[in-house]
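Board notes (copied after class):
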Amino acid sequence: MLHVQNRELVMPGQLLAEGGYIINEGAFREGGRVYASVVGLADIHGQKIRVIPLRGRYIPKHGDIVIGVVIDTHYSGWILDLNSPYVGNLFVSDLLRRKVDLVREDIGQYLGIGDVVVAKIKDVNELMRVQLEAGEPSMGRVAGGKLVEVVPTKVPRIIGRKGSMLNVLQSVGGCRLTVGQNGRVMIWGDDPRRVNAVIEALLMIEREAHTSGLTDRVRLMLEKVKSEGGE
C-alpha cells in the first residue's frame, strides 16, 4: 500500500509504503514499512520505490563517468577535484593505456594543473580512495567548450528518462554535451548564443527538477532561441 504519490516531496522519516516494495537509495525499511531517509521526491515505478534527494554532495561510485579538474600532480599521475568531498587519483598508465617510462617521459606533456578531464571511476576502496581511468576514446583531457556545475542530484533530470532531456538539449540546443555524474556538464557549440541558451536550460532544470512538463518548457525555450537566430 502506498502512502505517497509519485514525485511527491517527502521528508526524512515519512512513511512511503507498506508491503513488499523493492527499495533503492533514499529509503529504508522497518518491518513491513518503507520510510524516506532524505528530503527529496518519491520515485515509484511498479514495485520499486526510492527517494531522489534534492540536495547533496557527489559520492563517487564504481563505473560512474565524471568530469574532474586537475589540482595537483605526483610522480606517476595527477589528483583531480571531483566536485566531491573526495578527490580522484589518475595514473598516467590509466590515461594513456600503456606502460610509461617515468624516468624518460615528462607526464606534464599530457595533463597540467587546471586541465579538465572526462574519466571513469575505476575503483573506490573502503577508505574512499578513488582511482580513475580515462583511456577510452570519449575520455581524457577536454579541449574547448564550457564547463557548467549543477547540483549532482539533478543529473538524472538533466539526462531524462531514456535520455529524453539530454536529447532535447543537444538536438534543439544545437550543442554537444558530456554529462558527469558528479554534477559537471561540458558544452560545445559553434554559436555562442545557443551555448548560453543551453546553459540557461541547465540552470532551469536544476531549479525546476521537481516540476512536471519540464522537458516541454526546455524545448520551447531552446526553439525560441533557435528561431531568433534565423534558422
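Comment from the instructor: The chain has three domains: 9-53, 65-141, 146-228. The longest strand covers residues 65-74.
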